[in-house]
Specification:
single chain; about 400 residues; alpha/beta; Aspartate Aminotransferase, domain 2; seven-stranded mixed sheet; four-stranded mixed sheet; 11 helices; 17 strands; binds pyridoxal-5'-phosphate
């Protein structure tokens, strides 16, 4: 097939819910992807952060290949050894508690909202989230999301969500009332334009949640699995969440949703109150175990820290030459480059033409999230393309 033929199939048969670029990718290895015409690209935004370790990571592929020959899916009414093993690894790398599996970030967040509501039932049900946050596209998670554009046309939305200014502790304190049961936030807002939470702010939130018996839900769907240079972003802040949600990179390219629940809250969801048919199936757990293998055996956290410094240096140098660049926001390999223009989509398209895939969010923020395996030479080439495009 050629691109036109694929596009025709889409226009005839695929629901038109995405803004799609004229690009059909058919192969990928680590940072490099290839399109249907054989053109290669540096992928500095792999699958909206899903292929965060790089495309077709060898540890993930090996585990999946081995598992697929044995058994693909097991009902959650039976035991599956890989789910047990993966859960123990997650807990040993995060905080004391237990794990629940689903298939996506939205579903993981939905579980966290349910847990909080059941904890507060019947008096407390309100969840406070942040402006510019993004938590998913299900009815509850789009209501939790602090951006009006995702909600238009879906009224009536469920009650019980409030949004406050990010990084403003007073705004949060003022919003807490007798019905509040949880605070939910991303430590680095991804869709919101790479907004990094201040250390004191997060510590204050933790303290307030303890004082007022609120569930602190940290959405690590985009930041988890090494993206910020630590396995989980909360590890930058010296606090522990009550509930942490994971997805995207955590499945190494396979669909996963994870809700990690701290000890204190482990008995709230009981048999019959929450479930997911596909959640934590052996193949998906094998993929996620491959993600841990890759991060640990290939030293990807240390590499990500190093590459982050190199990227920061190059971006600062470009900024000195190109006044169109405003603020550079960076934590590990999660990077936002603010441009002093109203709409930066033209730059994104220029980069694409020249063989670099990045993302543009909030109209004028270039979102750059190379895979953790990115090489110095690839950063050099990507930065050259970015500068030419600017
Ligand atoms: C922080 C955050 N939470 C939740 C989601 C929703 O995840 P999913 O698309 O897997 O449902 C996203 C997706 O971009 C996200 O960035």
């Amino acid at each position: 097939m050629n691109l036109e033929e694929v596009k025709k199939l889409y226009s005839d048969y695929v629901l038109n819910t995405y803004t799609r670029t004229d690009l059909c990718l058919i192969k990928g290895k680590d940072t490099i992807v290839e399109d249907i015409n054989g053109k290669k690209y540096l992928d500095f935004f792999p699958g909206w952060a899903v292929s965060g370790l790089g495309h077709c990571n060898r540890h993930v592929i090996k585990n999946v290949k081995d598992q697929i020959k044995k058994i693909v899916h097991v009902s959650n009414n039976y035991y599956n050894e890989l789910q047990g093993e993966l859960s123990s690894i997650i807990i040993h790398n995060s905080f004391n508690g237990k794990v629940f599996y689903s298939n996506s970030g939205a579903e993981a967040n939905e579980g966290a909202i349910k847990l909080a509501r059941k904890f507060g039932n019947p008096e407390r049900f309100e969840v406070i989230t942040m402006q510019k946050s993004f938590h998913g596209r299900t009815i509850a998670t789009l209501t939790a999301t602090g951006q009006d554009k995702v909600k238009k046309g879906f009224d009536p939305l469920p009650a019980g969500f409030k949004h406050v200014l990010f990084n403003d502790i007073k705004a949060l304190e003022d919003a807490i009332g007798p019905k509040t049961v949880a605070v939910m936030l991303e430590l680095v807002q991804g869709e919101g334009g790479i907004n990094i939470a201040d250390k004191e702010y997060v510590k204050d939130i933790r303290r307030i949640c303890d004082e007022k018996n609120l569930v602190l839900i940290i959405d690590e769907v985009q930041t988890g699995a090494g993206r910020t240079g630590k396995m989980f972003a909360f590890q930058h802040y010296g606090i522990k969440p009550d509930v942490m949600t994971l997805a995207k990179s955590f499945g190494g390219g396979f669909p996963i949703g994870v809700m990690v629940v701290r000890d204190k809250f482990c008995d709230i969801l009981t048999p019959g109150t929450h479930a997911s048919t596909f959640g934590g199936s052996p193949v998906i757990c094998a993929a996620a175990l491959g993600v841990f293998d890759a991060i640990q055996k290939d030293g990807l956290l240390e590499k990500a820290e190093k590459m982050s410094l190199i990227l920061k240096k190059s971006l600062d140098a470009i900024k000195a030459r190109k006044p169109v660049i405003g603020k550079i926001k960076i934590l590990g390999l999660m990077i936002g480059v603010e441009l002093n223009v109203e709409d930066a989509s033209g730059i994104y398209m220029k980069c694409l033409e020249k063989g670099l895939l990045i993302n543009c969010t909030q109209k004028n923020i270039l979102r750059i999230m190379p895979p953790l395996c990115v090489k110095k030479s690839e950063i050099k080439k990507a930065m050259q393309i970015l500068e030419e495009s600017l």
